[in-house]
Amino acid sequence: MSRIPLSALIGMVVTAAYFLAAIFADVISPYGYAEVVGNVWDPVSAEHWLGTDSIGRDLLSRMIYGGQITIFVAAAATVLAFATGAFFGFLAAVSGGWVDQVLSRLVDLLMSIPALILALVILSVLPVSIPVLIGVMGLIESTRVYRLSRAVAVDVAVMDYVEAARLRGEGTIWVIFREILPNALSPLVAEAGLRFIFMVLFISTLSFLGLGVQPPLADWGGIVKENKEGIVYGIPAALIPAVAIATLAISVNLVADWVLTRTSSLKGGRG
């Protein structure tokens, strides 16, 4: 068994720390997410390890609860994107013909519109809530997953064992889940980490623009927005969530790079 490189190990530890903090937010948070406990932008102290925010709430507590919302929304949207995109990508590759053409041209049309602009247009006419955010982000990003899934499945669909399954009379759904999916899983797992980070950046951007998570709840992007005026006065409250976003992105990317490298090496060894 090969050793895990230091970079991937660091990524795993940091990522696990963020996820554990999100899961146990109610236990480890010193204050409630909307509880006013001090003055505006109090400095770091023994009572407030990261100081307070623009209305006197404990910034550490806001960061913990904001991380919970950020990670939950990003993870749920990633799952939705992969479930939808992978299924239709595999379906297009296995079916071919007009099914492939219709799905691929529809995806081309959606991908021709920048994802952020499309999300802003949709959210401007819908009531903004966490389920709506998850649905919009997941469906928009499913187009990227569709492209990858179809490309991988096209190569798998011509293999002998897939042809044998078709000759046995197996249905399309059976072929997708029993033949295509197990052999296309590795690149999708590596891509899942990258898609998750894009979802974190996506929801943070939407919240910063005012169409993401709505007050009094806040994700990390919303916390940046709430405290951005403090930058003019040298208050670092807006920079702390930005650093959290960056460190989470880097740590997940380190793990995803290792997974992709390990998958490629294993395939090369089998070859």
TrEMBL record:
Entry's Gene Ontology cellular component terms: plasma membrane
UniProt record, GO biological process: transmembrane transport
Keywords noted in UniProt: Cell membrane, Membrane, Transmembrane, Transmembrane helix, Transport
InterPro entries: BP-dependent_transpt_permease, MetI-like, MetI-like_sf
Residues annotated as transmembrane: 6-25, 69-93, 113-140, 192-211, 231-260
Chief location of this protein within or outside the cell: membrane
Residue ranges annotated for the ABC transmembrane type-1 domain, each copy included: 67-256
Membrane topology, record value: Multi-pass membrane protein
Keyword Iron: no
Keyword Cell membrane: yes
Localization terms from the record: Cell membrane
PROSITE patterns linked to this entry: ABC_TM1
A Pfam family of this chain: BPD_transp_1
Source taxon at top rank: Bacteria
Family membership noted in the UniProt record: Belongs to the binding-protein-dependent transport system permease family.
The name this protein goes by in its record: ABC transporter permease subunit
Organismal lineage: Bacteria, Pseudomonadati, Pseudomonadota, Alphaproteobacteria, Rhodobacterales
